[in-house]
Amino acid sequence: MDNTTLALRLKKIRESLGIKLTEAAEKLGFSSYQILSNIEEGKREVKASELGNFSKVYYCSINKLLGHEEPASETAFIWRNSPKERKDEIEKDILLHCEQYQLIETLLKVKPKERFINVEIDDISTTYKVQKLASDISKLLELGRRPAFTLQKVLEQNYGIKVLYYSLTEGSAVSTISPHLGSVVVINEDEAPWRQNFDLAHELFHLITWEAVVLNQKHTDEEYSDDIERKANTFASALLLPKEEVNKEIMERAEVSKVISYSDVVDIAIEFGVSIQALVYRLFHLKFIATFEEADKIAKDVDLLQLSITKRDGERKKRESEQFIALAIRCLRKGLISRGKFAEFVEIDDRNDIDDYITIRGFSEEEGGSIEIMAS
Questions:
Q1: Sheet of 173-178, strands arranged across
Q2: Would you place residue 116 in the very low, low, confident or very high pLDDT band (cuts 50, 70, 90)?
Q3: Of 168, 166, 163, 243, whose CA–CA distance to 203 is shortest?
Q4: 225: left (phi over 0), alpha (psi -120 to 50) or beta
Q5: Pairing, β 173-178 against β 182-188
Q6: What is the pLDDT of residue 71?
Q7: What is the pLDDT of residues 144-199, one digit of tens each?
């Protein structure tokens, strides 16, 4: 690629992100915005060492910067509470993270997982069918009695779904299926863990209905129907709070007095890894609470909310993309990526922190001895 073509490409990408020249120059580490201006005008060549910075600041792979990739089809993102600002920037950053993820999988020769289940539009035509779909999916994925605590690992390890955690400001979650990058779910890392569990289950609904809803009906996030979002919530509630298991917990606590205390409600929510609101509304659908109005009043009760905050204070631990980190460590251990590249992938500012980062997560950077595996 000649200098003029690269210059025009860099300027176009910056402008598409809505980043001012002065702001971009500062992020790129240039001493003056005039340096970037000269680059964009083709008056100054881009040094090879600077391409990595452009890639990071512009949320774009180096290959794309150099024009070595074929234009990919537009990726549709389905947002839960779409942000009013930085939406395009966040989506480009998500795609960059996914490209890094895919690079690691390629280096490790990770084979593509089996294609995830897709359902027809008729399979979600009623609330009953959505709840049945949740039950069927739980059995298919073998999520066990407390699905919230196994769902991420199953999706990542058995189905190759990329589950990422990212600060989404106003949005709580976003998902996409790309022909190049596969199925992706991004969860807001700033949310409470029980909310993150629900968001993951909610986005799973979008993944399994992608062809029936998103592709066939050509929805954009602005047009995405309230009905589909309600069904995604119904699916998530039924998936994370299996009818038989919730019934068992409620009846054990209400066997003597026929009532359950607010403490019981919080304990059950903790047991299933969901919010008290999700549990209370599920109790209404399971006919433990007579009316929606009564359930809504309980879910918003200040005393119940305060009790939940007090009892769940210790649960707030920052979540990570466990599979991505594990694969990145394997790549580093096998010498497939440098320590600098590893630090970039897992967003460590100081390379001296790499050893502690790996050790804290129970891994080792050393390969150690080896075991000869006999052919089966």
A1: 78-80, 173-178, 182-188, 162-166
A2: confident
A3: 163
A4: beta
A5: antiparallel
A6: 45
A7: 999 999 999 999 999 999 999 998 877 689 999 887 788 999 999 989 999 999 99
Q: Which long-range contacts (CB under 8 A, 24 or more apart) does 248-256 make?
A: 250/283, 250/288
Which token pair is 232?
């995604």
- What is residue 209's DSSP assignment? T
Enter the pTM of the model.
0.78
Residue 271 contacts residue 241 (beta carbons within 8 Å): no
pLDDT at 373: 76
DSSP string of 51-92? HHHHHHHTT--HHHHHT-SPPPPPPP-EEES--SSSHHHHHH
Q: What's the Rg (C-alpha) of the chain?
A: 24
Burial, 314: exposed, middle or buried (Cβ in 10 Å; 0-12, 13-18, 19+)?
A: exposed
Q: By the 8 A CB rule, do 124 and 231 touch?
A: yes
Which H helix or E strand runs over 185?
A: strand 182-188
Q: How far apart are CA 172 and CA 59, in angstroms?
A: 21
Element (H, E) at 298: helix 292-299
Which of the 8 DSSP states describes residue 366?
Answer: S
Could you read off the pLDDT of 298-343 as tens digits, one per residue? 999 999 999 998 988 776 677 888 899 999 999 898 888 888 888 9
One-letter amino acid at 258 equals K
Q: How far apart are CA 139 and CA 95, in angstroms?
A: 31
- Can you read off the two tokens belonging to residue 150? 């196994």
CB 194 within 8 A of CB 269: yes
Q: What is the DSSP letter of 187?
A: E
Output the six-digit token pair for 114.
């089996």
